[in-house]
Design brief:
single chain, 164 residues, mainly alpha
Length: 164
């Protein structure tokens, strides 16, 4: 029980530090880490976290490519709803195709959706700002998702310590 309490305190402090320094890390959407925590906790103590992390990063890369494609080659907002739908559909189809290589589809979807949720409002309000914000947003999303993965590993350790 002491181990579980200690690990729980570590998770709380680590997440609080992450939230406090989110601007410095380029990860302004700290809620993504919380979502990742929940998702990776479902993987369980014996999940393949390396393959999941790689799949998640591929999802972020596909999201980045989607936004760059929209900004460079498609009409800008507000006349672009159909193009957003087409590019999103193609991106998700690409992720499904990549999943046949053994990568986790849920992790790729999480990476893709996390990146789009972090950058879509910038795209809609000022698409030109993507030139300077697209890459830092991808880094911030990756950091958030990886922090969520580390925190979920600690949460799983807590659950295992409590159940012993």
């Amino acid at each position: 029980m002491k181990k579980a309490i200690g690990l729980g305190l570590l998770v709380g402090v680590f997440f609080a530090i992450f939230v406090a320094f989110q601007g410095f890390l380029g990860a302004s959407a700290f809620y993504i880490a919380a979502v990742a925590m929940a998702m990776f906790a479902v993987i369980g103590p014996f999940g393949d976290y390396l393959k999941t992390a790689i799949a998640m990063l591929i999802g972020v890369a596909v999201g980045l490519a989607s936004m760059i494609t929209l900004a460079l080659f498609m009409p800008l907002p507000p006349d672009n709803l159909m193009y957003v739908a087409i590019v999103s559909g193609v991106a998700l189809f690409l992720l499904v195709l990549l999943s046949v290589t053994g990568l986790r589809i849920d992790a790729m979807f999480l990476g893709w959706a996390a990146y789009l949720s972090a950058i879509y409002s910038t795209y809609v309000s000022d698409a030109a700002a993507l030139a300077t914000q697209a890459a830092p947003a991808a880094v911030g999303v990756c950091v958030s998702l990886l922090v969520g993965m580390v925190l979920s590993l600690l949460v799983i350790k807590i659950a295992m310590a409590v159940n012993q």
